[in-house]
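Re: the 160-residue chain
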Amino acid sequence: MRFRVCHVPIVLILGLLVGCGGGEQGEGPIVPPPPSPAEYAEKHMPSGWWGDAQKLEEGRKLFVGEANPDVNCASCHGKDGKPVKAGATDFRNPERMKLYSDSVWFWRISEGVPNTKMKGWKSKLSEDDRWKLVLFERSFGLSGKVWSVEKSQWIDAGAK
């Protein structure tokens, strides 16, 4: 009996450490998202926006809830892209985020993600505002990268 009592606290502590993952929110394996549906497949960041500091700042204000009181992406995804709610995507992970084209990212912001708490924002945000969110969110894990339509991948901003 004494043997079990002594080991219970150790087992509980180890279980909490493993279960909490050191404080990180687990997202599961890194797999490509499904392709965007036809109505989003040809949508891409508006011309000249990738390097536009004003649009980036407008995206930040939207993300943290300063620009629109109905929208606060940071309440789930964290102000720095580190999730604060279980299941939210960690935008700081470049290995995951490089799998999202700009059109897929825009589609997910617009329509939400099925079977998750991520709802669509197209009824609350204009198309321009949704692109500003893509612009800002990519700065966490893909800073200095732009989506190349020709190459169908993220490339260094200067490599166009």
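Residues 112 and 118 are 5 Å apart (CA to CA).
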